[in-house]
Give the backbone structure.
Amino acid sequence: MTVESAVVEADLAAGRLCCPGCDGPLSRWGFARERTVRLLHETRSLRPRRVYCRRCEQTHVLLPAWAVARRRDGAEVIGRALLARANGQGHRTIATTLQRPPGTVRGWLRTFARRAEPVAATARLWTRALEPSADHPFTAGSPFVQAVDALGCAARACRLRLEITASPWELAVALTGLLHGRPRDPPGF
Ligand SMILES: [Zn+2]
C-alpha cells in the first residue's frame, strides 16, 4: 500500500472524506479497475478506491491528485498544456512538446476553456481565504488565461499558508478537479 492509499483508507475509516457531489460521508465500496496514468516521463499504475455516498446514493472513484478524472494523462502533463496555452502556444506545438496526440491536447484545452470561469472563481476564493490581507491584482486576458493565473495564485497560497508540498497542478486538481468534477470552494464561502 502506498502512503497515499494508506491516508485515504485512514480518512475513510474515520469518516473524514466527503462526497464530491453533496458533501455526505463516504464509505468503502471496493475498488475501481486498475488503470495506467501517463506522467511526463513514465507511466504509473493505479487501483483506485471506490466509495459510496449514502446521502446521494452514488458511487465515486477516489483518485490521487496527480491523476485527473476521466483522463489518461496526469496532472503535470495536462497542467503544462494549460500553462503553455495561456502563454499563447497552439495545441499542435504543445502536443509536439509533450509528445501527445494533437487531438488529445485540443480536448484538454477545450474542456478547460468551458470551465474556466467556475474554476477561476473557486481558485480566487481559496486565495482570498488563505491570504485575506494580500492584494490580488486582476489579470487581463481571456477567461482561460485568468483561470490558469488564478490557479497559480491559489496553489502558491496553499503552499505558503498551509505548507503543502504538493505540486501546483496537484493542488489545482484537489481544489477544482481541473477538467472534471465540481470545483470545491473553501469552507465558509
Ligand atoms: Zn453524495
User: Anything to note?
Assistant: Strands lie at 26-31, 35-38, 43-46, 49-53, 58-61.
